[in-house]
TrEMBL record, chains A, B:
Name of the protein: Phospholysine phosphohistidine inorganic pyrophosphate phosphatase
Catalyzed reactions: diphosphate + H2O = 2 phosphate + H(+)
Cited CDD domains: HAD_PPase
GO MF entries: inorganic diphosphate phosphatase activity; metal ion binding; phosphatase activity
Group of enzyme by EC: hydrolase
Gene from which this protein is expressed: Lhpp
Gene3D superfamilies assigned to the protein according to its UniProt record, in alphabetical order: HAD superfamily/HAD-like
Record organism: Podargus strigoides (Tawny frogmouth)
Subcellular location: Cytoplasm; Nucleus
GO cellular component terms, A-Z: cytosol; nucleus
Signal peptide feature range: none
Keywords, alphabetical: Cytoplasm, Hydrolase, Magnesium, Metal-binding, Nucleus
Length: 229, 229
């Protein structure tokens, strides 16, 4: 990361993290020694807030408690849409029924999903991610969710806009073959798949997505990028 | 009901009820004055038990506590499939993660769903039904559930087999345009839509399903059937 910053290349962190505010997320990474600030992070919640404001939508939030502060400035009275994130322990039977009832009661139900991940791994095992619960509400209400976050094209485009770089001159580095690599490529960027994190060997035979290159880790990705400058 | 029984016509009750055993379900209807016995009921849980036995499947159950006795005779050790019913309060975050982990850990995940309903109405409001949670697990594990219960063809066929009647000589009476009427018709039966229960006027413009006739209630359905004998 320091080598990229020293090279003068523009850098943006694109995360689908919706279990915490950007502040908390950045503090965690800083604690691990990364040189990162809130202003450098593109995340689903602020992207959703822009959409809510633009379309005068007042959300009912089905999100993690720690994410709620990201929506502090949004009017949430008399909701006319539902925003679903990785609510984790908040994915209770009662909370899902409540979100469902609000949606089905709307003349034109609007469901905004902060990502469409299937599952993720925590120390105590695999957990269902926001995408699974999004599918449940989509089916029950016969609606299609609007996905904010990777792999949505608009999400990558807003990250690029924030640093003022066209997609052809940008490269994505990620561990998620579909959300990182596939999403960035559909937006016109090149993308490197790192063989760390959630990478699995079977990703190299993915039926839809072919990365521009594989690298064993982030350092190797930086080597390749800096060599080609 | 009494008029049908008196006429000598064969009768079968087809229900997607998965919040209680057939015993409990029948007692409830008897209490309301209906002449009905357990032996006359076709329900998803016993249909699932037949499949489990035939294919040597050992289920992990994500169902309502009151339904568990239907699976008393089934080996549930070391599960190699997941059976999901309308688990209601048992649809907790922890239980869904547990079912998901078992499925994703299987070499060939098998998910059996006791129905595919979207939602239903209770006195305290609308509730998400088994179909919504089925979709969540389908998406997370990239599998297709096998649906037992209406509108599955096999479900109607087993009801017909139990009374020894070919579909061309049978008629379904139901309030659910898709699960009752559509399912029965796809199986070669005729089907009457009653304008009671979960019927909604917009059902009469359903894009896929056209009942053989509409009736205002069960008594009118019996009138029509007895007239044509």
């Amino acid at each position: 990361l320091n080598r990229i910053k020293a090279s003068g290349l523009k850098l943006r962190f694109c995360t689908n993290e919706t279990q915490a505010t950007r502040e908390k997320f950045v503090k965690k990474l800083q604690g691990m020694g990364f040189d990162i600030s809130v202003a450098e992070v593109t995340a689903p919640a602020p992207a959703a807030c822009r959409i809510l404001k633009e379309r005068s939508l007042r959300p009912h939030l089905l999100v993690h408690d720690d994410l709620v502060p990201e929506f502090d400035e949004i009017d949430k009275t008399n909701p006319n849409c539902v925003v679903i994130g990785d609510a984790a322990e908040n994915f209770t039977y009662a909370n899902l029924n409540e979100a469902f009832r609000l949606l089905i009661g709307m003349e034109k139900p609007v469901l905004i999903a902060l990502g469409r991940g299937r599952y993720y791994k925590e120390t105590d095992g695999l957990k269902l991610d926001v995408g699974a619960y999004m599918k449940a509400l989509e089916y029950a209400c016969d609606v299609q969710a609007e996905v904010v976050g990777k792999p949505a094209k608009a999400f990558f485009e807003s990250a690029l806009a924030e640093i003022g770089v066209p997609p052809q001159q940008a490269i994505m580095i990620g561990d998620d073959i579909v959300n990182d690599v596939g999403g960035a490529q559909r937006c016109g960027m090149r993308a490197l798949q790192v063989r760390t994190g959630k990478y699995r060997p079977c990703d190299e035979n993915h039926p839809q997505v072919k990365p521009d290159a594989y690298v064993n880790n982030l350092a190797e990705a930086v080597d390749i990028i800096l060599q080609q400058l």
